[in-house]
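fold-stage: in
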Amino acid sequence: MIKVSVMYPNSEGASFDMDYYRNSHMPMVREKLGDACKDSAIDGGLGGGTPDSPPTYIAMGHLYFDSVEDFQSSFGPHADEIMGDIPNYTNIEPVIQVSQVHS
């Protein structure tokens, strides 16, 4: 299984609308990706590695697929629409990572 993480770094002036992300963006992404997307999760940053430090990431979204090919074939046809929705909830340039999930 692979996990595609979309991370939104915290910085001065960064804004992020978690309600829109949770209730509009991620449901739209799941609908577009269809059955290829096995699961999803959303993290909201609370703090950094030391007491009272800000979170490194304001938010992270995670999408799970059986393979990189499943991700690419389901995301590719909808990439413009999915990426075009980003300005509706944030002014942050996301960082994307594809990982192998080990259990």
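fold-stage: in (second)
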Amino acid sequence: MNNSQQSSYHETLNGSFSSLLQWDDLANFWDHLRDGEQAGWYIYAIGEKPPTAIVSADEFLQFINHIDALIRKEHDERVCGIVYTNHPKTPSMVKIYDPNNLGLSCGSSEIPPLPGWILSRTEPEDLRPAQVLPGNRRRWWKTLFS
């Protein structure tokens, strides 16, 4: 990966994002991605090695279905507020925070926690998380595409 790609990825990651605050907002966003934004995505599980290849449309849809089920099951809150996109209609990056490791995901801390997963159109760079991916999440991730 060259420096301009790394810079672009890092700039996007640290740029402006909107929360998909309401559960209906999240459902509509997933539907938008299912209806035509499936090709050309990298899926990065923070704590694993960053991917070097985009996933297939089928793998992308499988991930969306599984991550949606996971966050709805484990984030039993009135609002969602743990999925963020850099643009709701033409996204190039989506941050998904792990419901079991939220910290201050709203970014109000000096060093906000990393998301659990990042969907991006640009090849990810290694974010080198301070924490190891928990065993239950590592198992979930490993079985997702097998």
